[in-house]
Amino acid sequence: MDLNHTFIHFVPVLALVLDILIGDPRWLPHPVVGLGRLAAWWERLARRMPASGTNAGAFLAGALGMVLLAGGAGWAAWRLSGLGYAGPLLALYLSWSGLALGGLLREAHAAFRAVETGSIGEGRAAVAMLVSRDTTALDAPSLRKALAETLAENLNDGLVAPFFYLVLLGPGGLWAYKAVSTLDSMWGYRTPEYAWFGKAAARMDDVLAFIPARLTALGMVLAAALAGPVGPSFGRIARIVRGVRRDARKTSSPNAGWPMAAAAWIFGATMGGDAIYFGAWVPKPVLGPAEGHVELSAEGPGKEWTRERFVGLLRLCFMAGVGTCLAMYLAGMLIRGEI
Questions:
Q1: Residue-wise pLDDT tens digits, 213-268
Q2: Where found in the cell (predicted)?
Q3: Where do the structural domains in the chain lie, given as residue ranges?
Q4: pTM of the full predicted structure?
Q5: Judging by beta carbons within 10 Å of its beta carbon (0-12, 13-18, 19+), is residue 238 exposed, middle or buried?
Q6: 18, 32, 44, 49: which has the fewest Cβ within 10 Å?
């Protein structure tokens, strides 16, 4: 029996376990840090090019940077994963460092504790470390809602999507996706500076996250039905599914709305709404049950994100994240004829 070949089969599950137990391996060089530095270097270089002052030039510079960085990251991960006896261990490290469920849950819980036990200033500062909106005027329910939104959205971006490409294409696929996702987070702003430079990365991220975002929402609904606040009520599940399908299409992103709408409808609390980003007031749609809708959540009346609802969302994201990843892993093995 080829032990290396056998070990490679279990790398996705081992990586998921390490991510949950340990989180980001900060005591080791993290590939995202290197990607960020390369992206910043490319942007500085591209901005000095004469053609970068035009919309077309900025778009081409950003698109070329995305192709080079995503292709290079995927190629490097693929090559390192195939280096003889060291390959499987490198594959495990690259897979582990590309997942973010453990870190996401820990950081969200720490910010939640700051909101609940600290001063309002401490809560705002803690939440501001995890979200891009302005938190200076938010009260406790609004801070919980902001945390709930980033927790739901990043369940896909930080776990389900990279795991999907890990199962589909191995560590090379995971890191090609992570590179695009990193560039989208750095360049994908709708500001005059990045509207064209980051357009290719933003659109590619939309394409790559299309299927994982919907799997994330499905996993959340199934977890809520099997072991969460919804229970095995077909009527409530049907109402949630209808609500998610309707509200997910409201957002400007074709993907972010799916896990956010799932969380909103499962817990009967709204997400979205107008907010301040980078000093500008941004109108955003409201996701979740409208006023007067029959209450779906077992956590009490109202549409606010209470303590109980947010703690329930933390549990749900853990169950849905692990369950969705294991289902994708088993499906991949079944398709390849390995089970």
A1: 999 999 999 999 988 777 677 888 899 999 999 999 999 899 999 999 999 999 99
A2: Cell membrane
A3: 3-335
A4: 0.92
A5: exposed
A6: 44
